[in-house]
Write a structure and sequence with these properties.
globular, 7 helices, 7-stranded mixed beta sheet, single chain, about 200 residues
């Protein structure tokens, strides 16, 4: 699919990559938990354009796995089922296991597609616990849709963030979640600045 869909997708969206700094430009080696805003069903495709050199696992709602055919399809495309309201230990262990195997797992911490279009929605804190357990960095990414025919799809990549060892307690997890939320807002501002220069 990467080979056959690359050219038509590239022509349609004309993805443009923006990096927060030089550290963000480095290719990801080893495991990482990739987080992104969630603007539509095509977000996984957009992320694959940004990280074409790595295989990505995607966390998807368990409802999409509710038949044998769907389960086979989504599993075949490296999706991990999750219950949005109650993350099971099975799902948690699978994600952490993939990270420890030096894979990249992509998750959308807003928990659902943002259809309100009123800015970034609040983040769920499960990603912090996954990063802590696996001892892998979190890679923040922001996706900005095309704003017109002349514009390009923007993929803004931030510098990987390592959750400090020894982080514990509800307050510390909440603070780390807020830090990542603020980072995502910063990446959004970089996207807006790019369009503002056009």
């Amino acid at each position: 699919m990467r080979i056959t869909s690359f050219l038509p997708g590239f022509l349609l969206w004309r993805p443009k990559h923006i990096y927060e700094n030089q550290a963000a430009k480095k290719k990801i080696r080893g495991g990482a938990l990739l987080i992104s805003n969630h603007i539509g069903f095509t977000d996984p495709v957009f992320l694959m354009y940004g990280f074409w050199y790595r295989r990505l696992y995607f966390v998807a709602l368990r409802i999409f796995f509710n038949t044998k055919m769907k389960n086979f399809w989504f599993r075949h495309f490296l999706c991990i089922p999750i219950d949005r309201e109650n993350v099971s230990m099975e799902t948690f262990r699978e994600i952490v296991g993939r990270l420890k195997e030096d894979e990249i797992v992509a998750i959308f911490p807003e928990g659902k597609i943002n259809v309100e279009k009123q800015g970034l929605q609040t983040f769920k804190s499960g990603m912090i616990l996954m990063a802590m357990q696996s001892k892998k960095p979190i890679l923040p990414v922001y996706i900005q849709k095309k704003k017109g025919i002349r514009h390009r799809l923007l993929i803004v990549v931030g510098e990987p963030i390592k959750i400090p060892e020894g982080t514990s307690g509800l307050k510390a997890v909440e603070n780390a979640t807020q830090e990542l939320y603020n980072k995502e807002i910063h990446l959004q501002n970089l996207a807006d600045e790019y369009y503002g220069k056009k």
